[in-house]
Amino acid sequence: MLTQLLRKWESRERKKTRDYEKEKDREKERKSDETKEARRLKEFFEDYDDERDDVKFYKYTSMHYV
User: Fold this and answer.
1) At 11, which helix (H) or strand (E)?
2) What residues have CB less than 8 Å from 65, skipping those under 6 apart?
3) Would you place residue 56 in the very low, low, confident or very high pLDDT band (cuts 50, 70, 90)?
4) DSSP letter, residue 35
5) Sign of the torsion formed by the C-alpha atoms of 30, 35, 39 and 44
6) pLDDT 10s digits, 28-37
7) What is residue 1's three-state secondary structure?
8) In whole numbers, what is the pLDDT of the chain averaged over residues?
9) What value does the mean pLDDT take over residues 38-57?
């Protein structure tokens, strides 16, 4: 009885350890993606020129109020 409980507990602990490792890996991947996106946006805004790029990203007719 006691050895069976011990085996179940050890099995549960191994599963929890794997789950924690998977969660840590997912968090690492999320932070990596967030860093890549931040770098991409930084480059975009550094290179953005209002005179040149506003025409591509904004439709002036939709911005006029009647």
Assistant:
1) helix 2-47
2) none
3) confident
4) H
5) positive
6) 999 999 999 9
7) coil
8) 88
9) 85
